[in-house]
Prior knowledge:
Layout: H1 15-22, E1 27-32, H2 38-51, E2 59-63, H3 66-79, H4 83-86, E3 90-93, H5 94-106, E4 111-112, H6 116-131, H7 152-165, H8 167-171, H9 179-184, H10 189-203, E5 212-213, H11 217-227, E6 245-248, H12 256-268, E7 273-278, H13 297-302, E8 307-311, E9 313-314, H14 319-329, E10 334-335, E11 342-348, H15 351-363, E12 377-381, H16 387-396, E13 401-404, H17 413-426, H18 435-448, H19 460-476, H20 481-490, H21 495-508, H22 513-524, H23 526-533, H24 537-552, H25 560-576, E14 583-587, H26 588-591, E15 596-601, H27 616-626, E16 629-638, H28 644-648
Parallel strand pairs: 1-7, 1-8, 2-3, 2-6, 4-5, 6-7, 9-10, 11-16, 12-14, 12-15, 13-14, 15-16
Helix pairs in contact: 1-2, 2-3, 5-11, 6-7, 6-10, 11-12, 14-27, 15-16, 17-18, 17-21, 17-24, 17-25, 18-19, 21-22, 22-24, 23-24
Amino acid sequence: MSATTFLPLGITPTPEQLAIQLGRHKRVIVEANAGAAKTTTLALRLAQALARGADPDRLLVLTYTEAAVTAMQQALARIGVAANVRRRLKVRTFDDFCRARLQHIEGGNLVHYTHPEQLKPYVLQAIERVMSNADERHPDEFAVEGSGEAMVEGLLASFTHLKGTLQWAMETGDQVLTPTLATELGRDYLTLRTFWAYEQLRRGGHPDHPVFRAPHDATYDLASLLLDEDAFVDLPPPLAMGLHLVLLDEMHDTNRAMFTVLRHLLAQNPQTAFIGVGDRDQVIHALAGAEAQFMGETFEREIGPVERLPLTASWRFGTNLAQAVGQLARKSYQSLSPLRTAVQIQAFEHDKDAHRHIVSVIRDRVGLSDAAPLSSLAILLRQPHQSVALENHLLDHGVDYRTQGFDTYLMRPEVLLVRGLIACAHNTFEQIERPETRAGILRALLMFAASFVETEADSKEDRFKAEQEAIDQVVQSPSLIHYFMDNQVLRNARGGARRHIEAALNVAHTEATDILMDRFVRALAPRELAARVMVLADDIAQVDANVQGLIASAATYDHVPSFFRAMNEREMRQQHMRDKDCIVLSSIEAAKGLEFDHVILPRMNRGEFAIGGNTPDNRNLLYVAMTRARQQLTFLCDRQRPSHYLVDLGLLPAR
C-alpha cells in the first residue's frame, strides 16, 4: 500500500487529529471531548486508509443515529473525498447494518415499524394475554387496572432497555420467571411477563422469522442469534465480510447488544483494523442500555488490547465554556475556537421573573448574530413538566416556539383529561376546535378511568374498532360528550378511578379559579389515578406534576370558563407556529448531537436538575446540555436554592 498522506480540504489537522489519521495500530479507541470534531477526525482516518490504497467496498462506518450517518457523509465530502468513492462506502447505523445482515441470513422481507403508535396494538394484546392467562401462578402481581393503554409508552421503553442490555440472556440462563427473580433483576414482574408475550407476538411463534421489527430490534435479534451456539452450525459466519477497516462513531452510546455484534464482527474479520470514537461523558442513552464500559475495560477484556488516543480540543465553543465543562467532567478540555463563548448565571426570586427574562432574551436576540435564525436559540429542560408555565408565558407573550423530545403540554394525556373534565362540567366541549384534540380527550378519559366502550364484539380488533367509532361519533357531535361520559367512561370505570373522576367533575363545575386551584388536584388525585394504569414511577410523577402545573396556571384568570378558553386559544396558536422559524424548547436527550448559538438551561435549582442525586447520568445530561452552546450559555436558577452543579462548575462560590 502507498504511504501517501491524505491532505484534507479546508482544514489543517491538529497534532491530535494527525496522530489518529496517520496511526497504524490495529485497534484504536479515541477518547474525545464534545465539540472536538470527532466525526471529522474519523473521516480523516477513513480518507487516509483510502489514500493508502484501501478498497472502499471493504470499509465500514457504524454510528448510532441517522443524524450521525448524515454528519459522516457531510464530513467526508467537506474534507475532499470524491463523490464516486463516497457512494461506495458503507456508512450505516448499527441497526441498519444488523437489519441488512439479517435479511442476508433470513431472505425475504418483513414489516418494519418506526413509530410507537404502530406497536401499541401489539403491546395491548400482550398485556391482555398476560392478564387473562388462567395458568398464571402469581396473579396478585398484576395490580394495574383497565386496558393498559397508559402503560404502553413505559413498557416500550422497558423493552428497549431489556433488548439493549440482553439482560435476560446474560443474567438468567434457564431460570423460570418469578416475582423473586424479577426483583433480583431490578424489574417489575408484569413488565417481564408482558415483554415475553410481546416478543411471542412479534416473532409470530417462529424464532427465526419475526413478523415485524421496530427500531433496535434488528440489533437485538442478530445479537441473540450470535449468542446461540447452534444458530449457524450449518451456515457460513454471518459477519464474515472480508472487511479491512471498521470505524465506529458515537461509541459511548454502545450497549451490550451492539457490543455483541461488534465483537463477532471483529472476530469474523480477523484482518480488519478498528477505530472507535466516543466521549464517555455523553452517555445519555442509558435507557437503551448504553454504558461507557464498552469503550473501556470491557473492550480489552472481551476483544483485546487497544491503543487509546486523545481528542481534547473543542472547535464548537470558546475557552470560558471549555474550562467550565472540563471542571464538571474532571478532565482536560481545551478550545481551539475563536469564539468567546459567554457563560452566565441569572438568579431570580420567582419562576415568573425567569420567564420574563427568557422573553426579553428572545426579543433582543441575545447571543444570536444578525443572520442567525431564531432556531439557533434553544431552551433545554430536564423534565417535560417544567414546560407548562414556560409554554404559557411564551404563548401569552407572542413568542413562537417548537417542542422537541416531548409533546407540547396541552396535548399530554393528563392535561387532555383535565380539559375534558372542565369541558363536561361547563358544557363547552364544542369550543375545542381540532377534531384530533377532541378524540385525544375522549381517549384520555377512558384511559385514566381504566374504562372501555361497551360492545358485543369478541375480538380485540373489533373492540378497538367499536371504540374508535364511538369516539368519532362524539368528535362529530360534541353534544354527545355527556352521554359518553356517563355511559362509557363512568359506568365502566373501576371503583377508585370513578370516585376520583366524579369528585374532580364536581369541583370543575365551579366558576371560581381559586376553588379550582384549592380543591381540584386533591379531588382528582392524579398520582393515585396514574398509578392504577401506569407502571413506571417516573411516568406517574410526570402525570402528577403536569396536572399540578396546569391547575396552578389558572391563577391569572378571573373564572374557570376564561381559563378553559385560554387553553383552547393557546392550543390553536401553538398549532399555527409549527412551520415558522422559532426558538426550540427541547429535552436534553433530544438535543444531543445538535448545537445552538445560545443555550438556556432554566430551573438549575437544588433538587430539580439532579433528580436522584449527583449521579453519573445527571452529570452526563448536564455535560451534554452545556456543550450544545456556541456563542452563549445561560443558567437560570432560584436565588435561594441554586443547584450545587453551579458550584462544581466554578460559577458560584461554595456555601
